[in-house]
Amino acid sequence: MALEWVVLGYAAGAEAVMLLLMTVPGLDPLRKGLITVIRNLLKPFLSVVPFCFFLLMDIYWKYETRPSCESDSCSPSEHLRHQKSIMKSQRNALLIASALIFYWLLYSVTGLVVKIEQLTKRIEKLKAQD
Q1: Is the dihedral of CA 118, 119, 122, 124 positive or negative?
Q2: Is 113 in contact with 24 (CB distance < 8 Å)?
Q3: CA triplet 118, 106, 93: central angle to 5 degrees?
């Protein structure tokens, strides 16, 4: 596996772990510090989006330039290599999709958690006034 796919896998994994920690109930003390860390990491993690599009174009280019093995003239090893190439492309496309979805979910959930905290503080302030 090439280095860029390993990097994308680690980025998607980090996004998934942060998303899991944000949504698991009972981690309120940890969540406050995690929110500030995630909000500071969202801008650098935005680089995942153009990186994913670059890798998607790489998959497309490899798909367009790969030798086809559709006739009976292919040897079994060529046919197997062709099938492995298709499976790798599909795996990498799923990795790209998961990284993009995890980033979007992390961005959305962080925004919602911040809004919920602001509303909770507002409610407490209104209750204190009454």
Answers
A1: negative
A2: no
A3: 165
Rounded Cα distance, 74 and 82, in Å: 10
- 36 vs 12, 68, 85, CA distance in Å? 19, 50, 41
Tokens for 19, please give them: 């998303």
Residues 62-96 as b/e (b if ≥16 CB within 10 A, e otherwise) read eeeeeeebeeeeeeeeeeeebeeeeeebeebeebb
Spatial distance between the Cα atoms of 90 and 88, rounded to a whole number of angstroms: 5
DSSP 25: T
Cα-based torsion angle of the residue sequence 52, 1, 94, 78 in order, rounded to the nearest 10 degrees = 120
pTM of the shown model: 0.78
Residue 110's CB is within 10 A of a number of other CB atoms, namely 19
From residue 24, give the alpha-carbon distance in Å to each of 3, 50, 112: 31, 29, 14
What pLDDT, in 10s, does the model give residues 16-64?
Answer: 999 898 888 888 888 888 888 888 888 888 888 888 888 888 888 877 7
